[in-house]
Amino acid sequence: MSPRIPSAPDLPGDSVDVGFAGDGSGFALMGECGKTGCRHRVAVLDRGAGAWQLGQSPLADTTGGDGISAGLTVLGPGRALMTEGRWPPPDHTWFTSDGGRHWRQGSSSPSGTIAVVPEGGVLVEGCLRADREGNGCAPSPLLVVEPTTGRFRTLAAQPPLKGVVAPAGETTHSAGEKARNLLFVSGRDPSSGRPALAVSEDRGRSWRTSRLTGAEGQERAAWVVGAGEVLYAARPGQLPDEADVKNGLLSLHRSTDGGRTWEQVWRHRKGAEPRSILGAPVAGSDGSLTVHSEDGVWRSLDGGRSFTRHGSSEGMSGWVTTGAFGYLWGDSSGAGSWRISADGVRWTSFVLGGGS
After folding, report:
1. Does 126 reside within a domain?
2. Which residue of 15, 72, 199, 290 pairs with 29 in a disulfide if CB–CB is 3.0 to 4.6 A?
3. Looking at the 3D structure of the chain, how many domains does it have?
4. Closest Cα to residue 102, out of 71, 80, 69?
């Protein structure tokens, strides 16, 4: 069941970033902007609490048109990392272990190595230098954010992929009575150069290549989600023939063996919806697969092979992320509307701020 999250429409400003730990506690980064700049605040929800409380924010107010360029990563109950600057890499970081009451400034550069992604830790893309064009990151080692310190460490065993390698998701695959926790990253197959995944069954100690049958093109990013024995991988990217789509959906892939083999169940065809994807797809415990897009919500009941519009949804349909809680949906208009779901089927709605 999804944790019950209380609403707090009177929180100042807009809820820019929200995250939860597995016990239902959470953090929200609030931004209140006017003509002279923006003020940052942090709201905290303690485990089992009936209301959000304003905590201390380590971020200085911005001036002029700088806006808000900060992010929040929840690392467990009462623990979070605040980043300032466009990620990756951040300009500054701060860490709290007491629910936002105190923050300690950290470093955005990695120090030392770590053998495993610990419980509560987060795998993140390394960006130690820019690419030749200066528009993105050159290939760099994956980093781990330690849950007890907020520090960045270099993962000792790097995935066997080429190019820029980035996290693609963490999910649980049920094989009979045994459930395995899987970490996925995306990059390029070292032999063919095609887009591919790598998967770890031991929290990053070792990796194996997970090739996406039918995947083509330059884009290598992916989101992997799962429900029971079924995993889905969605590949976002620039569509070759539809310039009006900003967040294109290139293909969908399905696996029933923990990512050892994949079947391409859907690929972009001009005019066929969903043409775009906003965040991760949602794999429901009822066998459904849902895609939030630039033109409404689309649902499949046949393993991602075909989609129909969900209800009367139209236009930008919000952004979906995943975490220890399951799925988190936030609206596209910044009105403070959120939904959370543990199974991709039953959702709990709540409101955080929404006024500037």
Report:
1. no
2. 72
3. 2
4. 80
CA–CA separation, 190 vs 167, rounded Å? Answer: 17
Task: At 255, list the tokens.
Answer: 């696996």
The answer to whether 61 and 39 have CB atoms below 8 angstroms apart is yes
Does 117 reside within a domain?
A: no
pTM of the model: 0.94
Please, what is the end-to-end C-alpha distance for the chain in angstroms?
33
pLDDT by residue, tens only, the chain of 356 residues: 677 899 999 999 999 999 999 999 999 999 888 888 888 899 999 999 999 999 889 988 887 766 778 889 999 999 999 998 865 677 889 999 999 999 999 988 899 999 999 999 999 998 877 777 767 788 899 999 999 999 999 999 999 999 999 999 999 888 766 778 999 999 999 999 999 999 999 999 999 999 999 988 877 789 999 999 999 999 999 998 898 999 999 999 999 999 999 999 999 999 999 999 999 999 999 999 999 999 999 999 999 999 999 988 888 999 999 998 899 999 977 779 999 999 999 999 999 997 54
Instruction: Say which residues have a Cβ less than 8 Å from residue 309's Cβ, sequence separation at least 6.
Output: 273, 296, 297, 298, 299
Within 13 A of 109's CA, how many CA atoms are on the CB side? Answer: 3
**Tokens found for residue 290:** 């849902």
DSSP-derived secondary structure letter, 150: -
Q: Tell me the two tokens of residue 250.
A: 């290139």
Per the structure, the complete domain to which residue 213 belongs is given by 161-323
C-alpha torsion sign, points 218, 223, 227, 229: positive
